[in-house]
Amino acid sequence: MADMGAFREAVGRWAAGGPAGRAAELAAQLGLRTAVLLEGPSDLAAVEALAARRGRDLDAEGVCVMPMGGAMSVGRYAGLLGPPGLGLRLTGLCDEREQSYYERALRRARAPRPGYFVCAADLEDELIRALGPAAIEEIIAAEGDLRAWQTFLRQPAHHGRARSRQLRRFLGTKKGRKIRYGHLLVEALDLTAVPAPLDALLASV
Length: 205
Prior knowledge:
Blueprint: H1 4-15, H2 21-30, E1 34-38, H3 41-53, E2 63-67, H4 74-81, E3 89-95, H5 99-108, E4 117-119, H6 123-131, H7 133-142, H8 146-154, H9 163-171, H10 177-188, H11 196-204
């Protein structure tokens, strides 16, 4: 039976130079209409967590949330999934420093504008600012990561930095941590205070 995970895998193989047939077949079976292009799996975790909290089943709605393995891949994925390829509507979320890549990629893919939403630094930064550092530290403690956090803070390289910057860096210091906290931070949000780019993205699909 077709599922979104299988479609993502098929697109990944296609993007790496494999055949297009399996991805096209699964897109048809799933009734896909929209592809949401994201940099990586931590963004996927956050988007899926917010969709669940809002009572939405994106898979059932024909929306594929696609982590690309880095913003530099947006041109390839936009071409495969957008009008030149599978013909899906494209949207996405990117960091401010990568906005130009998205702009060019979506323009080349003939995607309608505006087609994406921009985080000031990255999505983790948006979530940290929405929740506040104190709330993030409470989550870190509840998750059993307090000792790792305290060890991190003692490292000279991080002395004197703003707490929000320290937290953002900490979330990226261990494989899998950003993914886990992408979900946890969204779970902790007041739904009236969702970061604007994330809120707008979900509202657009």
